[in-house]
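Working notes for the structural subgroup meeting. M.R. asked for a predicted model of this chain before we commit to crystallization trials. I am recording the input and output together here so anyone reviewing the notebook later can reproduce the run.

Input as submitted:
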Amino acid sequence: MKILVYGINYAPELTGIGKYSGEMCSWLAANGHEVRVVTAPPYYPDWSVSAPFSPYSYKTEWIDGVKVMRCPLYVPKKPSTIKRILHLCSFAMSSGIRLFSQLSWRPDVLICVVPTQFCSPIALLYSSLSRCKSVIHIQDYELDAMFGLGMAGGSNSSDSRVKRAAFAVERWLLSKFHRVSSISNSMLNKANEKGIATEQLMFFPNWSETSRFLAVSGTDTLKAHLNIPPHHQVALYSGNIGEKQGLESVIEVAERMQSDSVTFLIVGQGAGKERLVLLAEQKRLQNVIFSPLLPYEQLPTLLSIADCHLVIQKKGAADAVLPSKLTNILAIGGQSVITAECETELGMLCQQYPDIAVRVDPENVEALYQGIGICLEKPRFNAIAQNYATQFIDKESVMKKLVLSLNTVLSR
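Returned structure, recorded in C-alpha coordinate form:
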Protein backbone atom coordinates (compact mmCIF):
# COMPACT_ATOMS: atom_id res chain seq x y z
CA MET A 1 0.00 0.00 0.00
CA LYS A 2 1.23 3.52 -0.83
CA ILE A 3 0.39 5.91 2.00
CA LEU A 4 0.90 9.68 2.11
CA VAL A 5 0.65 11.25 5.58
CA TYR A 6 0.00 15.00 5.86
CA GLY A 7 0.32 16.74 9.21
CA ILE A 8 2.18 19.49 11.02
CA ASN A 9 3.78 17.32 13.74
CA TYR A 10 6.20 14.45 13.22
CA ALA A 11 9.25 12.70 14.65
CA PRO A 12 11.67 13.45 16.24
CA GLU A 13 9.14 15.28 18.44
CA LEU A 14 8.98 13.29 21.67
CA THR A 15 5.48 14.09 22.86
CA GLY A 16 1.96 14.28 21.51
CA ILE A 17 0.93 13.95 17.90
CA GLY A 18 4.42 14.03 16.37
CA LYS A 19 5.43 10.99 18.39
CA TYR A 20 2.42 8.95 17.28
CA SER A 21 2.65 9.98 13.61
CA GLY A 22 6.34 9.07 13.58
CA GLU A 23 5.75 5.67 15.18
CA MET A 24 2.80 4.96 12.86
CA CYS A 25 4.79 5.67 9.70
CA SER A 26 7.87 3.76 10.89
CA TRP A 27 5.71 0.71 11.65
CA LEU A 28 3.97 0.88 8.28
CA ALA A 29 7.29 1.14 6.43
CA ALA A 30 8.78 -1.73 8.44
CA ASN A 31 5.77 -3.86 7.48
CA GLY A 32 6.19 -3.44 3.73
CA HIS A 33 4.19 -0.30 2.92
CA GLU A 34 5.53 2.68 0.97
CA VAL A 35 5.16 5.76 3.15
CA ARG A 36 5.81 9.43 2.52
CA VAL A 37 5.17 12.34 4.89
CA VAL A 38 4.57 16.06 4.31
CA THR A 39 5.20 17.84 7.59
CA ALA A 40 6.95 20.73 9.35
CA PRO A 41 10.32 20.85 11.12
CA PRO A 42 10.06 19.64 14.73
CA TYR A 43 9.13 22.49 17.06
CA TYR A 44 6.76 21.07 19.70
CA PRO A 45 6.47 21.37 22.70
CA ASP A 46 9.26 24.00 22.93
CA TRP A 47 7.70 26.22 20.24
CA SER A 48 11.18 26.55 18.80
CA VAL A 49 12.82 24.93 15.78
CA SER A 50 16.32 23.75 16.68
CA ALA A 51 19.32 22.93 14.50
CA PRO A 52 19.82 21.23 12.09
CA PHE A 53 16.25 22.09 11.12
CA SER A 54 15.10 25.49 9.91
CA PRO A 55 11.66 27.14 9.97
CA TYR A 56 12.47 28.95 6.72
CA SER A 57 13.34 26.24 4.20
CA TYR A 58 12.19 22.99 2.63
CA LYS A 59 14.10 19.84 3.51
CA THR A 60 13.78 16.15 2.62
CA GLU A 61 15.14 13.35 4.79
CA TRP A 62 14.64 9.64 5.36
CA ILE A 63 13.62 8.33 8.79
CA ASP A 64 13.19 4.56 9.30
CA GLY A 65 12.50 4.00 5.60
CA VAL A 66 9.99 6.89 5.39
CA LYS A 67 10.53 9.83 3.03
CA VAL A 68 9.90 12.91 5.17
CA MET A 69 9.40 16.26 3.42
CA ARG A 70 9.68 19.27 5.76
CA CYS A 71 7.99 22.57 4.94
CA PRO A 72 8.66 26.05 6.37
CA LEU A 73 6.30 27.65 8.86
CA TYR A 74 5.99 30.50 11.33
CA VAL A 75 6.62 29.41 14.93
CA PRO A 76 5.72 32.04 17.56
CA LYS A 77 7.85 32.07 20.71
CA LYS A 78 4.81 32.92 22.84
CA PRO A 79 1.72 31.59 21.06
CA SER A 80 -1.54 33.51 21.38
CA THR A 81 -4.80 32.83 19.55
CA ILE A 82 -3.87 35.09 16.62
CA LYS A 83 -0.30 33.83 16.49
CA ARG A 84 -1.50 30.22 16.53
CA ILE A 85 -3.79 30.90 13.58
CA LEU A 86 -0.92 32.52 11.66
CA HIS A 87 1.27 29.56 12.59
CA LEU A 88 -1.26 27.04 11.22
CA CYS A 89 -1.98 29.08 8.10
CA SER A 90 1.72 29.40 7.30
CA PHE A 91 2.12 25.62 7.30
CA ALA A 92 -1.03 25.09 5.23
CA MET A 93 0.29 27.46 2.55
CA SER A 94 3.87 26.19 2.41
CA SER A 95 2.96 22.50 2.65
CA GLY A 96 0.48 22.66 -0.23
CA ILE A 97 3.35 23.15 -2.65
CA ARG A 98 5.15 20.04 -1.40
CA LEU A 99 1.95 18.00 -1.22
CA PHE A 100 1.03 18.61 -4.84
CA SER A 101 4.56 17.68 -5.92
CA GLN A 102 3.51 14.14 -4.95
CA LEU A 103 0.67 13.90 -7.49
CA SER A 104 2.76 11.76 -9.84
CA TRP A 105 3.49 9.29 -7.02
CA ARG A 106 -0.22 8.41 -6.89
CA PRO A 107 -0.69 7.08 -3.34
CA ASP A 108 -3.51 4.71 -2.45
CA VAL A 109 -4.42 6.60 0.72
CA LEU A 110 -3.89 10.12 2.01
CA ILE A 111 -4.05 10.47 5.82
CA CYS A 112 -4.52 14.06 6.96
CA VAL A 113 -3.76 14.46 10.68
CA VAL A 114 -5.62 17.09 12.72
CA PRO A 115 -4.27 19.40 13.93
CA THR A 116 -4.32 21.15 11.67
CA GLN A 117 -7.80 21.47 10.18
CA PHE A 118 -6.42 24.27 8.03
CA CYS A 119 -4.82 21.61 5.82
CA SER A 120 -8.02 19.68 5.15
CA PRO A 121 -9.16 21.69 2.08
CA ILE A 122 -5.75 21.13 0.50
CA ALA A 123 -5.89 17.43 1.39
CA LEU A 124 -9.35 17.04 -0.17
CA LEU A 125 -8.23 18.75 -3.37
CA TYR A 126 -5.18 16.51 -3.55
CA SER A 127 -7.32 13.41 -3.01
CA SER A 128 -9.64 14.46 -5.83
CA LEU A 129 -6.81 15.16 -8.28
CA SER A 130 -4.82 12.02 -7.45
CA ARG A 131 -7.93 9.85 -7.11
CA CYS A 132 -6.73 8.38 -3.83
CA LYS A 133 -8.83 7.59 -0.77
CA SER A 134 -8.80 10.24 1.96
CA VAL A 135 -8.77 9.72 5.72
CA ILE A 136 -8.78 12.58 8.22
CA HIS A 137 -7.42 11.47 11.58
CA ILE A 138 -8.49 13.69 14.48
CA GLN A 139 -6.00 13.77 17.34
CA ASP A 140 -7.43 17.02 18.68
CA TYR A 141 -10.61 18.94 17.90
CA GLU A 142 -9.02 22.34 17.45
CA LEU A 143 -12.23 24.36 17.47
CA ASP A 144 -13.72 22.54 20.45
CA ALA A 145 -10.53 23.02 22.45
CA MET A 146 -10.28 26.67 21.43
CA PHE A 147 -13.85 27.62 22.36
CA GLY A 148 -14.00 25.25 25.33
CA LEU A 149 -11.05 27.02 26.91
CA GLY A 150 -12.27 30.51 25.97
CA MET A 151 -9.20 31.11 23.83
CA ALA A 152 -11.16 32.63 20.99
CA GLY A 153 -12.96 35.38 22.78
CA GLY A 154 -14.75 36.56 25.89
CA SER A 155 -17.65 35.09 27.81
CA ASN A 156 -20.05 35.57 24.88
CA SER A 157 -17.81 33.79 22.36
CA SER A 158 -19.86 30.57 22.59
CA ASP A 159 -22.84 32.39 21.03
CA SER A 160 -20.89 34.22 18.37
CA ARG A 161 -21.61 34.00 14.69
CA VAL A 162 -17.91 33.36 14.17
CA LYS A 163 -18.16 30.18 16.21
CA ARG A 164 -21.24 28.93 14.36
CA ALA A 165 -19.63 29.64 11.00
CA ALA A 166 -16.40 27.92 12.03
CA PHE A 167 -18.20 24.75 13.11
CA ALA A 168 -20.29 24.74 9.93
CA VAL A 169 -17.15 24.84 7.79
CA GLU A 170 -15.56 22.12 9.92
CA ARG A 171 -18.64 19.88 9.54
CA TRP A 172 -18.67 20.35 5.75
CA LEU A 173 -14.97 19.56 5.41
CA LEU A 174 -15.16 16.43 7.57
CA SER A 175 -18.09 15.10 5.54
CA LYS A 176 -16.01 15.15 2.34
CA PHE A 177 -13.39 12.65 3.54
CA HIS A 178 -13.86 8.96 2.80
CA ARG A 179 -13.22 8.17 6.47
CA VAL A 180 -13.04 10.20 9.67
CA SER A 181 -10.95 8.51 12.35
CA SER A 182 -10.19 9.48 15.93
CA ILE A 183 -8.53 8.24 19.09
CA SER A 184 -11.48 7.63 21.42
CA ASN A 185 -15.13 6.66 21.38
CA SER A 186 -16.22 10.03 22.76
CA MET A 187 -14.33 11.81 19.98
CA LEU A 188 -16.01 9.59 17.39
CA ASN A 189 -19.35 10.38 19.02
CA LYS A 190 -18.51 14.06 18.72
CA ALA A 191 -17.87 13.58 14.99
CA ASN A 192 -21.24 11.86 14.76
CA GLU A 193 -22.84 14.85 16.50
CA LYS A 194 -21.19 17.10 13.94
CA GLY A 195 -23.13 15.28 11.21
CA ILE A 196 -20.65 12.59 10.14
CA ALA A 197 -22.38 9.30 9.28
CA THR A 198 -21.59 6.32 11.53
CA GLU A 199 -20.40 4.22 8.58
CA GLN A 200 -17.89 6.96 7.75
CA LEU A 201 -16.21 6.75 11.19
CA MET A 202 -13.09 4.74 12.02
CA PHE A 203 -11.62 4.01 15.47
CA PHE A 204 -7.84 4.47 15.60
CA PRO A 205 -6.65 4.91 19.22
CA ASN A 206 -3.28 6.07 20.41
CA TRP A 207 -1.16 3.18 21.65
CA SER A 208 1.67 2.14 23.89
CA GLU A 209 4.62 -0.11 23.20
CA THR A 210 3.60 -2.16 26.20
CA SER A 211 6.59 -4.51 26.03
CA ARG A 212 8.95 -1.58 26.81
CA PHE A 213 7.33 -1.09 30.20
CA LEU A 214 7.43 -4.64 31.56
CA ALA A 215 10.93 -4.69 33.08
CA VAL A 216 12.37 -1.30 34.02
CA SER A 217 15.62 -0.53 35.83
CA GLY A 218 17.63 2.52 36.85
CA THR A 219 14.96 4.28 38.91
CA ASP A 220 17.25 5.09 41.86
CA THR A 221 19.88 6.55 39.52
CA LEU A 222 17.33 8.77 37.79
CA LYS A 223 15.87 9.99 41.10
CA ALA A 224 19.37 10.96 42.23
CA HIS A 225 20.04 12.69 38.89
CA LEU A 226 16.85 14.75 39.32
CA ASN A 227 17.77 15.61 42.95
CA ILE A 228 14.72 13.87 44.38
CA PRO A 229 15.25 12.89 48.04
CA PRO A 230 15.49 9.08 48.19
CA HIS A 231 12.82 8.77 50.91
CA HIS A 232 10.29 10.95 49.05
CA GLN A 233 7.29 9.75 47.10
CA VAL A 234 6.98 11.29 43.64
CA ALA A 235 3.93 12.95 42.09
CA LEU A 236 4.81 13.22 38.39
CA TYR A 237 3.44 15.35 35.59
CA SER A 238 5.15 14.66 32.25
CA GLY A 239 4.12 16.26 28.97
CA ASN A 240 3.18 19.56 27.43
CA ILE A 241 2.91 22.53 29.79
CA GLY A 242 0.28 24.61 28.05
CA GLU A 243 -2.95 26.51 28.51
CA LYS A 244 -5.32 23.56 28.53
CA GLN A 245 -3.56 21.73 31.37
CA GLY A 246 -4.14 24.27 34.13
CA LEU A 247 -1.12 23.10 36.10
CA GLU A 248 -1.36 26.02 38.50
CA SER A 249 -3.55 23.74 40.61
CA VAL A 250 -0.61 21.35 41.02
CA ILE A 251 1.49 24.19 42.41
CA GLU A 252 -1.32 25.05 44.84
CA VAL A 253 -1.44 21.44 46.06
CA ALA A 254 2.36 21.31 46.35
CA GLU A 255 2.19 24.36 48.60
CA ARG A 256 -0.27 22.55 50.89
CA MET A 257 1.97 19.44 50.99
CA GLN A 258 5.29 21.12 51.80
CA SER A 259 5.57 19.29 55.12
CA ASP A 260 4.91 15.88 53.52
CA SER A 261 7.59 13.60 52.09
CA VAL A 262 6.40 14.18 48.53
CA THR A 263 8.24 15.73 45.59
CA PHE A 264 6.24 17.17 42.69
CA LEU A 265 8.20 16.51 39.51
CA ILE A 266 7.07 18.47 36.43
CA VAL A 267 8.76 17.27 33.24
CA GLY A 268 8.23 18.97 29.89
CA GLN A 269 8.14 22.20 27.96
CA GLY A 270 5.42 24.46 26.62
CA ALA A 271 3.99 27.95 26.47
CA GLY A 272 2.92 27.89 30.13
CA LYS A 273 6.16 26.67 31.71
CA GLU A 274 7.70 30.08 32.40
CA ARG A 275 4.61 31.23 34.27
CA LEU A 276 4.49 27.99 36.26
CA VAL A 277 8.15 28.18 37.28
CA LEU A 278 7.65 31.79 38.38
CA LEU A 279 4.63 30.80 40.50
CA ALA A 280 6.63 28.07 42.26
CA GLU A 281 9.49 30.51 42.88
CA GLN A 282 7.16 33.13 44.30
CA LYS A 283 5.81 30.55 46.75
CA ARG A 284 9.39 29.43 47.54
CA LEU A 285 8.46 25.80 47.11
CA GLN A 286 11.25 23.32 47.81
CA ASN A 287 9.14 20.29 46.92
CA VAL A 288 8.67 21.16 43.22
CA ILE A 289 11.27 20.18 40.62
CA PHE A 290 11.12 21.16 36.95
CA SER A 291 12.92 19.14 34.28
CA PRO A 292 13.04 19.33 30.48
CA LEU A 293 11.81 16.33 28.52
CA LEU A 294 14.08 13.31 28.83
CA PRO A 295 15.19 11.17 25.85
CA TYR A 296 12.48 8.75 24.75
CA GLU A 297 14.52 5.71 25.79
CA GLN A 298 14.41 6.98 29.38
CA LEU A 299 10.62 7.26 29.45
CA PRO A 300 9.96 3.86 31.08
CA THR A 301 12.40 4.72 33.87
CA LEU A 302 10.89 8.18 34.33
CA LEU A 303 7.37 6.78 34.63
CA SER A 304 8.58 4.06 37.00
CA ILE A 305 9.81 6.55 39.61
CA ALA A 306 6.30 7.97 40.09
CA ASP A 307 4.07 6.94 42.98
CA CYS A 308 1.31 9.15 41.55
CA HIS A 309 0.91 10.22 37.91
CA LEU A 310 -0.91 13.47 37.25
CA VAL A 311 -3.19 13.71 34.19
CA ILE A 312 -4.35 17.30 34.53
CA GLN A 313 -6.65 19.30 32.24
CA LYS A 314 -9.00 22.24 32.57
CA LYS A 315 -12.76 22.01 32.28
CA GLY A 316 -13.83 21.60 28.67
CA ALA A 317 -10.48 20.26 27.49
CA ALA A 318 -11.11 16.62 28.36
CA ASP A 319 -14.13 16.48 26.04
CA ALA A 320 -12.00 17.26 23.02
CA VAL A 321 -8.66 15.71 23.88
CA LEU A 322 -7.72 12.27 25.16
CA PRO A 323 -4.26 12.80 26.75
CA SER A 324 -1.64 10.75 24.93
CA LYS A 325 0.44 10.54 28.11
CA LEU A 326 -2.16 8.25 29.68
CA THR A 327 -1.38 5.30 27.38
CA ASN A 328 2.14 4.86 28.75
CA ILE A 329 1.01 5.46 32.33
CA LEU A 330 -1.42 2.56 31.92
CA ALA A 331 1.28 0.41 30.31
CA ILE A 332 3.67 0.91 33.24
CA GLY A 333 0.87 0.01 35.65
CA GLY A 334 0.96 3.43 37.23
CA GLN A 335 -1.39 4.86 39.81
CA SER A 336 -2.80 8.13 38.50
CA VAL A 337 -5.04 11.05 39.34
CA ILE A 338 -7.16 12.20 36.41
CA THR A 339 -9.00 15.52 36.34
CA ALA A 340 -12.08 14.95 34.22
CA GLU A 341 -15.84 15.37 34.37
CA CYS A 342 -17.91 12.19 34.58
CA GLU A 343 -19.36 12.42 31.06
CA THR A 344 -15.99 12.73 29.31
CA GLU A 345 -13.97 9.88 27.80
CA LEU A 346 -11.67 9.84 30.82
CA GLY A 347 -14.57 10.01 33.21
CA MET A 348 -16.31 7.08 31.50
CA LEU A 349 -13.04 5.10 31.51
CA CYS A 350 -12.84 5.48 35.30
CA GLN A 351 -16.46 4.42 35.68
CA GLN A 352 -16.13 1.40 33.40
CA TYR A 353 -12.88 0.20 35.00
CA PRO A 354 -13.03 1.01 38.74
CA ASP A 355 -9.63 1.66 40.35
CA ILE A 356 -7.91 2.17 36.99
CA ALA A 357 -7.31 5.73 38.24
CA VAL A 358 -8.52 8.27 40.79
CA ARG A 359 -10.89 10.69 39.06
CA VAL A 360 -11.42 14.19 40.46
CA ASP A 361 -13.25 17.24 39.15
CA PRO A 362 -11.05 19.59 37.10
CA GLU A 363 -9.99 23.02 38.39
CA ASN A 364 -10.75 21.99 41.97
CA VAL A 365 -7.65 22.32 44.17
CA GLU A 366 -9.25 20.65 47.19
CA ALA A 367 -10.40 17.66 45.10
CA LEU A 368 -6.94 17.35 43.53
CA TYR A 369 -5.30 17.51 46.96
CA GLN A 370 -7.59 14.75 48.25
CA GLY A 371 -7.10 12.66 45.10
CA ILE A 372 -3.31 12.81 45.29
CA GLY A 373 -3.49 11.76 48.94
CA ILE A 374 -5.64 8.74 48.04
CA CYS A 375 -3.35 7.83 45.15
CA LEU A 376 -0.19 7.97 47.28
CA GLU A 377 -1.74 5.53 49.76
CA LYS A 378 -2.30 2.88 47.07
CA PRO A 379 0.26 0.21 46.07
CA ARG A 380 2.66 1.58 43.44
CA PHE A 381 1.66 -1.04 40.85
CA ASN A 382 -1.82 -0.92 39.33
CA ALA A 383 -2.60 -4.26 37.70
CA ILE A 384 -5.96 -3.01 36.38
CA ALA A 385 -4.21 -0.24 34.44
CA GLN A 386 -1.56 -2.51 32.94
CA ASN A 387 -4.09 -5.20 31.99
CA TYR A 388 -6.18 -2.57 30.19
CA ALA A 389 -3.12 -1.38 28.25
CA THR A 390 -2.15 -4.89 27.20
CA GLN A 391 -5.66 -5.72 26.06
CA PHE A 392 -6.71 -2.53 24.26
CA ILE A 393 -3.80 -0.22 23.38
CA ASP A 394 -0.86 -2.45 22.50
CA LYS A 395 0.88 -0.91 19.48
CA GLU A 396 1.10 -4.06 17.34
CA SER A 397 -2.60 -4.79 17.75
CA VAL A 398 -3.67 -1.20 17.04
CA MET A 399 -1.52 -0.90 13.91
CA LYS A 400 -2.68 -4.22 12.44
CA LYS A 401 -6.28 -3.08 12.87
CA LEU A 402 -5.43 0.20 11.10
CA VAL A 403 -4.11 -1.68 8.06
CA LEU A 404 -7.26 -3.80 7.94
CA SER A 405 -9.39 -0.65 8.09
CA LEU A 406 -7.41 1.03 5.29
CA ASN A 407 -7.75 -2.05 3.11
CA THR A 408 -11.51 -1.94 3.71
CA VAL A 409 -11.57 1.69 2.58
CA LEU A 410 -9.63 0.83 -0.58
CA SER A 411 -11.99 -2.02 -1.47
CA ARG A 412 -15.00 0.29 -1.68
